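Service request form, structural biology core

Requester: graduate student, group of Dr. S.
Request type: structure prediction, single chain
Budget code: on file
Notes: please return the result as structure tokens.

Sequence provided:
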Amino acid sequence: MQTTTRSTRYSKYESTLDDIDTSSIMEMIRDSIIGSAFNNPYDPDPNSGQSMDELREAILQALMERDLIPEDMLKEAQSTKDFDKTRLSQEISKMIQRMKDEGYIRVDDPQPSEASGQGGAGDPGQAQFQLTDKSIDFLGYKTLRDLLGGLGKSSMGRHDTKEYASGVEMTGDLKDYEFGDTLNLDIGATLTNTMAKGLENLEESDLVVRQAEYKSSAATIVMLDCSHSMILYGEDRFTPAKQVALALAHMIRTQYAGDTIKFVLFHDSAEEIPLGKLAQCQVGPYHTNTAGGLRLAQQLLKRENKDMKQIIMITDGKPSALTLPDGRIYKNAWGLDPFVLGETIREVAQCRRAGIQINTFMLARDPDLIAFVKKVAEMTHGKAYFTTPHNVGQYVLMDYVNKRVKTVN
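Core staff response, request fulfilled:
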């Protein structure tokens, strides 16, 4: 019997695309927004917004890939030279307007053309759009769901919920009370001892306490390597790094309200980037100023009053640049430059003295890099993970959840 591949045709879209809700549009273009489709490593402002033409192209591509364009609209668009005047173009414009009206994007209109001497608006295609807090939260939630879903039910095991708690979670393990223990008394076991010896003979050691898990507050800096190597050699490593950061930010905001998270990009230099700019940030210049990123991360962590301070560094390259005292950038891409390496290790030592743990997620396998990453982990009592773009998100999320819980009495 001959088998045929069954395809689904969404007939409700035969006459209009209005039935596609805005969240579905965001879901369809999520990879284009977060990914490198918008990235230009030679853009002088890697944190700028993206053009409306690029947004329109992303929506058009998503509709075509999902076979959601009615046949008559598609034929009209294919047969005309002026796409902007077609019904399909008008439908995409309406989708973008709904994204704006519902608070998913903010559009920065272009400035009037000075050359024309007119006060009218500039070229609409050159307008820039920015993601809003609502869209960042949406993207973070969807990415977190996908990453945790990829773990499977048995891998994560105990993912915390948003149920109210007193700050400690019972582990079920019992122990005899010792001076200094928190009095989480197990009534049943303690009464058993009391009845056996009599109340007048009860001693301190007859008290039985139930151990608990204490969830500390944490301040986290995510250092994202955005040097040009993150998109070289036919593999996009930067997009998974951004996805991890978005998912981690969403998880912290929704499940660890007392925690803080900030983001640092490092390339030839280093700068803090707000969450709202994270999804659209781009790969930058060629070199890797790890020392500059660590220095900035320490400055940000000094302002935090948390039980735990940590740096999560996601990178694929060796330190190859330094910011000199006069502001100039020293660069050497050939091997591990002793000067660059020495200054980088100096910043790692500063982190150790400040009680800052560094967990490095390395996306490469160079022997010199492996030795460097292991040294960083050893100095700060952190961890070194040698991962791939496909599993880095799962490693980061599991590590974050696991390290925040410690057993107390």
